[in-house]
Amino acid sequence: MYWEKEIETISRKNLEALQLERLRKSVKNASASYHYKNLFETIGVDPEKISSLDDIKKIPFTNKEDLRENWPYGFLAVSKDELVRMHSSSGTTGRATIIFHTQHDLDEWTNIVARSMYMTGMRRGDVFQNMMTYGLFTGGLGFHYGAEKVGALIIPAGSGNSKRQIQLMQDFQTTVIHIIPSYALHLSTVFEELGIDPRRDTNLGIAFLGAEPHSEKTRQKIEDFYGVNAFNSYGLSEMNGPGVSFECQYKNGMHIWEDNYIVEIIDPDTLEPVPDGEEGELVLTTLLREGMPILRYRTKDLTRIIPGPCECGRTHRRIERIKGRTDDMLVLKGVNIFPIQIEKILMDIEGVGTNYQIILERKDYNDHMIVKVEVHKEFFSGDLKQLETLRRAITEELKSDILITPRVELVEPNALPKSEGKAVRVIDNRED
Ligand code: ADP
Ligand code: ZN
What we know:
Strand content: 15-25%
Oligomer: single chain
Low-confidence stretches: none
CATH superfamily of the largest domain: ANL, N-terminal domain
Number of domains: 2
Strand order of the largest sheet: 4-3-5-6-7-8-9-14-13
Bound molecules: adenosine-5'-diphosphate, zinc ion
Radius of gyration: 22 Å
Largest sheet: 9 strands, mixed
Distance between the termini: 53 Å
Number of helices: 12
Structural class: alpha/beta
């Protein structure tokens, strides 16, 4: 059941010793890069003087802005000749950041992706359909090489083209899929249109859901519809991509591979560490990356450490499903709201379909939230009273959780724009 039993179940004490050894190497290695060399000189950090894990605090945080300012080569710690691949972020919040890998880096990354997949039960003999964009985005090639290492047969389907995806699943008896959760919901409507029931007509058993926040309800919807065990997969290009953190069979938080990363959770305002178990921003340090080590990277992702050991026996700590990015937080009439809160409520209401959109507007110095929700076709075929009852019910549910009253608009299935990549949930039309 373990890919690498020794490292996955290593004692905390030995894990911390290993981390320290690797941290020292990583910091020394980083100081060969233009960015960290200048930084260390300016603030007087001596890489030789990192003698405990706590000493990591001597190093300032690294932000997406630092990566952008040093674009493209300012973080390189090796000569360009050693590089064999580059990837980039999706550019969700601005200019995409670029990450370079040596062969060693790719091998280590592939290993943690394989470890993650194996952890969920994927094995040699499985047929793995990777429905993520291949190319600069890490979800394609990152998973591809991991699956190859596990020994599965890979269908590198890429994203989009829903009918062909379904055809491939049926023709080659796909057992494992990797899919963006919002796309999985959309694809379910295509299955329905075609009259194909994945539980009856496919061999699917496992789904990896990654790349964007999704609620537990969304996971359950996907599991019910496809008849799969769905596992949450978290990663970001700056830290390689997928494989950073993944759920085990207990699906109670995602193990974060601490032999590869040092994990910190900080208060994004004070930048101080928060106590274990409390929510904050995830900060990660690469321990095994040679080409482009990144120290104390502020992911902007909000989560918390789930205290206590996991039943699976792995000692690497778990993080809670990501609530969103700090930049995703909507501030409306003084109330802070994350899109995921809205998703959580919507997906629990009978009659709600697979897609929604949040629109923010400002009129007469007042902010308004409009929530557009796709609902089942039946609601549009006759009795409009039923539609109005549903609209009121949704409004009430939202109001009682987010404490402001949005204007809810119900639309027919497929009326809202859908994306083959990360879903765009919020449209902010307010002018600053
Ligand atoms: P970008 O930051 O431009 O979107 P990436 O493709 O590197 O580029 O995406 C990484 C980000 O995607 C993470 O920082 C996180 O915000 C989001 N993400 C990835 N996986 C998950 C997941 N399982 N749950 C929630 N958010 C996720
Ligand atoms: Zn576990």
